Amino acid sequence: IQPPIMRWLTTAEERKIKMEQLKPISQTVKIIFPVTVTIVCCLMLPGVTPLLGMLMLGNLFRESGVTARLHETAETHLINIVTILLALAVGSSMTAESFLRLETIKIIILGLLAFCMATAGGVIFAKIMSKLSGGKINPLIGSAGVSAVPMAARVSQKVGADEDRSNFLLMHAMGPNVAGVIGSAVAAGVFISLFGDPMVGSNHAEISTNIIATISSLPK
Question: Which one of 52, 98, 183, 207 is at 20 to 30 Å from 191 when CA atoms are compared?
């Protein structure tokens, strides 16, 4: 889906842009990043805590350097077990009556349109950044902003390599790729806060109002 959109919105010269080598990141910054993201996002959007918290916890396992056993288990055995259980849970509930419906086709079409629009929007925004930076940013990395890790970044690398085999964009594209994951989690938290959590049947604003009303009614 992505390559035709990327080629349509960029020129051959733009796809050949080589970006500078990334600067090395200190171990301290690698550890501070997941902790800071978790604290800030979860305080602002409590509904996103399970999703974003697990993402950042895995990142912390890897970068801390003191949890080698937990890191190895999480990225091998645990993720395989969770994937199997998730597939079984989703597959067992996907009956013909609930799946083969017009609403399902509408959702698939909406998802496809959203994916295309996200790809186009990322490339266009990266083109703007490329102009502002004097041609230092390859617009192809903008398409990696969709939360498909790491495939979106690999697509950026593939399209760039088709124009110039010596052009290596993979690690540059991983930045917007991970940012897209965090942004998707934050967007999910915003929707949960606005429209309510379907798992509990009540939105956070209602819960806060009920708590305040209960505290106010307590005898002084």
Answer: 98
DSSP conformation class of 18: P
Please, is 92 exposed, middle or buried when counting C-beta atoms within 10 Å of its C-beta (0-12, 13-18, 19+)?
Answer: exposed
- b/e map 34-69, b = 16+ CB within 10 Å: beebbeebbeebebbeebbbebbebbbbbbeeeeee
The C-alpha angle 64, 70, 71, rounded to 5 degrees, equals 60
> By three-state DSSP, how is residue 188 classified?
helix
Q: Single out the residue of 101, 137, 95, 145 nearest to residue 119, CA to CA.
A: 145
Q: How far is Cα 122 from Cα 145, in angstroms, rounded to an integer?
A: 6
Please, which residues bridge with residue 202 across strands? 197
Strand spans (E) along the chain: none
AA letter at 53? G
Please give the model's pTM, rounded to 2 decimal places: 0.74
Total structural domains within the chain = 1
d(CA 182, CA 140): 20
Q: What is the pLDDT of residues 67-120, one digit of tens each?
A: 889 888 988 899 899 999 999 988 888 777 777 788 888 988 999 999 999 999
The CB-based long-range contact list for 108-112 (8 Å cut-off, 24+ gap) reads 112/1
Instruction: Give the structural domain span for 26.
Output: 2-217
